[in-house]
């Protein structure tokens, strides 16, 4: 995936293609990698996560690992064989997700594809730095270190230099001078709302950040963002997401890149929101951006449509055209969907995994008796349908729908049903309709605002009463008058 290129991850740019090989080079492995296996700390375990979610996350982990291996120079067949031999390592990646995002799972929130990818890519990169060209051996033999022949001379640990650089950079962040103060750029960032641990976390991922000068790099970028209308409170979030922004020249890179994107249709009045949503957009190469734009043009989007997509969903640039966008487009075409319209309405669909996210939703509706054509109509009418969790959204709402007095075809007409809150909208609204004895269309029950819903329901009740009165009057008339 091009989004994993050396441009996006400059720390990998010094590694020549092909250094990640399957040769069984025997090097000692540090034990620390294998402590967690598929376990968590005390209060949390895999048993609380639904099996369907675990299976989906395992497929996501496989997809991320496959792309990562191919970007390190492995052929498709070799990458596939490695993954097939690395079941325990895949489980370890899933447990890593649960450990990093423990709080999300405790409240029942599933991770998005981008959150999964970001968490695993950074972890895989750290393993690559640590183990170099024996990482394949690590994966296949996990959790046990690969068997090695005793070398005549023990080589030094391969990650010693890298670790020392990271430690030195992190130490630099926390150091205080003779006056008991942090370095100027650290003080400046603290004043912006960042704390030392946050800055150390950034430095751990991107050591160069610790050496950026205040006046030469950090301050000019921050002031530029503020001039664009970015709230001061958003600056820490932006820098945490993409610290590399501070290492890019304003005059030679950032401003020309923004002008280039504006020419492609990005709304220049919305830069503050665009950068907050996806600050990495300004760090991609023009060729990478152009590749995505060419694809959007190819599927039939207008220039105006492309510009609006880039403004509303700038992270679409991070999706690989060949590994993500094109296969997803073909999948939706197989359902009879107009890809250009779907991309415009809900580009987030194209960041989802076909195997872990899209196919399970399609299969769910097929199992409920809907045809492929009907499913295509549903996603065409409501682009966000496939972005919902099966376990947390679609299944419970479907089960409640079965208790409602509507034909299944109503969901084809109004798939937006799945976008409303079950507890706060669907159940209370339907309870009022049921209690009144009125009959409303499904979209009337849910899509109307509170006042309009009340008015529509009252009008329906008045009409019912009027119709009933007419029928009663007719029943009371003498038979000769009826004639």
TrEMBL record:
Region forming the signal peptide: none
Family label: Belongs to the mTERF family.
GTP-binding is among the record's keywords: no
Taxonomic path: Eukaryota, Viridiplantae, Streptophyta, Embryophyta, Tracheophyta
Species assigned in the record: Quillaja saponaria
InterPro entries documented for this protein: MTERF, MTERF_sf
Gene3D superfamilies: Transcription termination factor 3, mitochondrial (1.25.70.10)
Keywords carried by this UniProt record: Transcription, Transcription regulation, Transcription termination, Transit peptide
Pfam families assigned to the protein according to its UniProt record, in alphabetical order: mTERF (PF02536)
GO biological process terms on file: DNA-templated transcription termination
Source superkingdom: Eukaryota
Name of this chain's protein: Transcription termination factor like
One annotated GO molecular function: nucleic acid binding
